[in-house]
Design goal:
25% of the residues lie in helices and 26% in strands. By secondary structure, the chain is α/β, with parallel strands linked by helices. It folds into two domains: 199 residues, Medium-chain alcohol dehydrogenases, catalytic domain (Quinone Oxidoreductase, Chain A, domain 1), CATH 3.90.180; 134 residues, Rossmann fold. Helix 7 links the parallel strand 14 and strand 15. The mean pLDDT is 96. Bound molecules: zinc ion (2 copies).
């Protein structure tokens, strides 16, 4: 089958021919991938700009961790062939002390589908059946595959403690910024402002998602945002270290800055501002298992209302064009759609 793979540390990805995965064992399913989203992390892995050295030992490996599809072969009677599913990419070991104690979120031997085990930029992917959540029949797999980035957004909003009435600022209008904005609105935020720079196509998507407080920051950075009044929670979803210091003055006393971007270098932070204003700096990344079902419920409830996020649908053979479009920030989310000829 065709698969988009990372062969070695260093820039580049290759669309190659590899054997299909083996038949699923007990408790596993073989998923026919119907949509796989290109993520910012995939771009970092493609250009090898730092932050993903930890996947080196798994190479060569097929990328693709934002997946929806259909069970093709099943080693679990609860998921018969034909069942439409989204795949949770985080595969816990089930055997370590915390897994056995019922706390898989702290598993010490986790593998990531599309990072440290074979992923879904391919027509088939093997996954534990417990990593599959069932979709309603006929649900658009391109929208279902948004569940993974929306889980990231849901977790970020939980980490930020966003609640009813909050004034929220999201720095970065990309897919994760959009996911945070959506989940902050869902959590009851009174106002969600999204700031970006030279990001017209992604602002258009936000407009179609119903957000009207969109700020082009231009050359002067975030300073003019101070005129908007202080925010309860600010999210950094760009991966630009200087934004951390720039965002602090925008927070109210005891406000929360949530850092979600992957940064190429350390940040310089005015710690006395943090101390005197009693600000909270928090990091967020992958969602918890418990975030998945509630986020999928949100995705199913929203359905076509989320369609503006899926700006591109491309055949798998055009994967690298999808990467280029995403890197140029024309795309919010490009979905790769494996075809029959890829098998
Ligand atoms: Zn992702
Ligand atoms: Zn474990």
């Amino acid at each position: 089958m065709k698969a988009l793979r990372k062969l070695a540390p260093g820039p580049g990805l290759l669309l190659c021919d590899i054997p299909c995965p083996p038949a699923p064992g007990p408790g596993e399913v073989l998923v026919r991938v119907e949509a796989a989203g290109i993520c910012g992390s995939d771009l970092h892995i493609e250009d090898w700009s730092g932050g993903y050295e930890w996947i080196t030992a798994a190479m060569p490996v097929t990328l693709g961790h934002e997946l929806a599809g259909r069970v093709a072969e099943s080693g679990d009677p609860a998921l018969p062939p034909g069942t439409p599913v989204v795949v949770i990419p985080s595969v816990t070991c089930g055997g370590c002390a915390v897994c056995r104690a019922g706390d898989p979120d702290r598993c010490v031997d986790r593998r990531g589908i599309g990072m440290t085990r074979e992923g879904g930029f391919a027509p088939f992917v093997l996954a534990p059946s417990r990593n599959c959540l069932v979709l309603p029949a006929g649900f658009d797999p391109g929208i279902a595959a948004l569940t993974e980035p929306l889980v990231i957004g849901a977790r970020a909003v939980s980490v930020g403690g966003v609640g009813p009435g909050d004034r929220v600022l999201v720095l970065g209008p990309g897919a994760i910024g959009q996911a945070i904005a959506l989940m902050a609105r869902e959590a009851g935020a009174a106002e969600v402002t999204v700031a970006g720079r030279d990001d017209g196509p992604r602002f258009d998507v936000l407009g179609r998602l119903g957000f009207d407080r969109l700020v082009e920051v231009g050359d002067q950075g975030l300073t003019h945002l101070a005129a908007e009044g202080r925010f309860d929670v600010v999210f950094e979803a760009v991966g630009m270290p200087t934004l951390v210091a720039e965002a602090l003055p925008l927070l109210r006393r005891e406000g929360v800055l949530v850092i979600a971007g992957i940064h190429p270098r350390p940040a310089e932070i005015p710690l006395n501002t943090v101390v005197r204003e009693q600000l909270q700096l928090r990091g967020t990344n992958r969602g918890r298992m418990a975030d998945w079902q509630r986020t999928l419920d949100f995705v199913v409830r929203q359905g076509a209302a989320l369609a503006p996020m899926v700006t591109h649908r491309l055949p798998l053979r055009d994967a690298l064009a999808g990467f280029a479009t995403t890197r140029s920030r024309q795309a919010t989310k490009a979905m790769l759609l494996p075809e029959a000829g890829d098998e």
